[in-house]
């Protein structure tokens, strides 16, 4: 039986070194192209159907007239419910919206969403209270939806 003392250290073969170098180069190239693609904002044409919603900025939009929720929304934590807490600038805070670079993010249409997903199951992830509060803003309109 051979012991570890009997085994001689042999230098790695050239093919093993070449394969390791090729793998390392491929990984670095993949990492570089992926990082570059996702970290640089790209200007998109209006005709482009794809939009990167991760890159953008908050803009003030005075066209937003009604808040996305009212004072009775119990799903929003009390400290975050600016309207329910009678915050003086609550109606101004809700006029800020996210604007992705190079494209537009339309305002959420709660009635259209409910019509589209009528008679289906909707999974609500843990941190989606914003979506639920937007849907709650349509309470008065629920009975107006036609049966599809």
Give a written overview of the molecule:
The chain has 148 residues and is mostly helical. Helix content is 30%, strand content 7%. It has helices at 14-39, 90-93, 110-116, 129-136; strands spanning 56-60, 96-100. Strands 1-2 form a two-stranded antiparallel sheet. The N and C termini lie far apart (79 Å).
Architecture blueprint of SSEs:
Layout: H1 14-39, E1 56-60, H2 90-93, E2 96-100, H3 110-116, H4 129-136
Antiparallel strand pairs: 1-2
GO molecular function: O-acetyltransferase activity
Organism: Lithospermum erythrorhizon
Protein name: Trichome birefringence-like N-terminal domain-containing protein
Q: How big a fraction of the residues is strand? A: 5-15%
Summarize model confidence as the mean pLDDT. 68
Helix content range: 25-40%
Can you tell me the overall shape?
elongated
Strand order of the largest sheet: 1-2
Using only C-alpha atoms, the radius of gyration works out to 27 Å
Q: Regions with pLDDT < 50 over 5+ consecutive residues? A: 35-46
Number of helices: 4
How far is it from the N-terminal to the C-terminal residue, by CA? 79 Å
* SSE run: HEHEHH
**Class by helix and strand content?**
mainly alpha
Number of strands: 2
Largest sheet, if any?
2 strands, antiparallel
Protein name: Trichome birefringence-like N-terminal domain-containing protein
GO molecular function, one term: O-acetyltransferase activity
InterPro entries: TBL (IPR029962), TBL_N (IPR025846)
Organism: Lithospermum erythrorhizon
């Amino acid at each position: 039986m051979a012991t570890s003392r009997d085994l001689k250290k042999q230098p790695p073969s050239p093919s093993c070194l070449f394969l390791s170098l090729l793998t390392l180069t491929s990984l670095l190239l993949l990492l570089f192209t992926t990082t570059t693609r996702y970290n640089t904002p790209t200007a998109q044409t209006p005709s482009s159907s794809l939009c990167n919603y991760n890159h953008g900025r908050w803009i003030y939009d005075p066209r937003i007239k009604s808040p996305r929720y009212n004072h009775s929304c119990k799903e929003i934590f009390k400290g975050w419910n600016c309207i329910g807490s009678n915050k003086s600038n609550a109606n101004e805070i809700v006029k800020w919206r996210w604007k992705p670079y190079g494209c537009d993010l339309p305002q959420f249409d709660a009635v259209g969403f409910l019509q589209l997903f009528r008679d289906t199951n909707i999974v609500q992830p843990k941190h989606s209270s914003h979506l639920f509060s937007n849907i709650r803003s349509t309470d008065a309109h629920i009975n107006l939806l036609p049966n599809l």
